[in-house]
Amino acid sequence: MNLTGTAAVAAQVGLVTAGAPWLAGLMRQVRARLEGRAGPGIGQPWRDLRKQLRKQPVTATGTGPAFRTAPLVLVATALVVTALVPLASTRTPVSGHADLIVVVALLALGTVALALAGLDTGTAFGGMGASREMTVAALVEPTLLMSVFALSIPAGSTNLADIVSGAVHDPGRLATPTGLLAAVALLAVTVAETGRLPVDNPSTHLELTMIHEAMVLEYSGPDLALIELGAQLRLTVLLGLLAALFTPWGITTGTGWAALALALVLLAAKVALLGSVLAAAEVFRDGQHRLRRLLQDRRHRARPDQHEHPVVRLRRLLRVHQRR
Q1: 27 in Cβ contact with 197 (< 8 Å)
Q2: Is the per-residue pLDDT at 82 higher than 90?
Q3: Closest Cα partner for 222 from 78, 41, 16, 52?
Q4: Cα–Cα distance, 111 to 282 (Å, whole number)
Q5: CA-CA distance, 173 to 246, in Å (whole number)?
Q6: Whole-structure pTM value
């Protein structure tokens, strides 16, 4: 068990670390295809990371240790969470420490470190992004706790390995109303925690509407690469947690090497499928918003008098009267 469990931890950490940029590229490619664009390819995030790592690090003037250590803390907490969560096997040397509260605390630690880095810069946008990030975190973290607590009651434990193991042997508990509501809540947590639409837009460059990007405006070079990698790791591990809790089929509960290899393949497939569905839902929701704005704009053009300010309307009437 020790050898297989150790290999399972190392394999899932390596798979998530190597696959996180590919997942981000896959989601961008799905969005591009659904929007009628060619897209840069699923390997573009890896190329971006390599380009950033080759640049010289630049530190903003007046920043302190919080700014310099935040990228390392973000990546370190994401890697520890990846090792703790039973993504491929429930029998690992660290499964006894994979408690729900520990996982949520590690995710919150990364969020707080990044928010402190935004405040440490002393810029208006950094402080605004940090304030928004902590507001979202205050809503997201309790929701994450409650959604998994709902699954821990039948298992009798808050240990994630015990919850997943119980779901593998008794899949019927996932089809209950409690399980379905917990799945929806955890999906909403994943969207909010990773800064996806409609909570945040990871590709925006408008300072007044961004949350995550506002905190990292002062980063560049290797530090920016670490932050991007940390965000991609958090997205991948949360999607993996969602897959492990609600579609645990394929996760090995034994010590077989063949079962472990199959679990890793199914993990990659399930996370890729969830990421593609999430990207498609973002395009659908964004398309609905654009269609609503287009219809409102056409209605405004068809009947301008109903939406026109009284002063503007009076000036327009005076100009028409003077022309006559």
Answers
A1: no
A2: yes
A3: 52
A4: 23
A5: 10
A6: 0.85
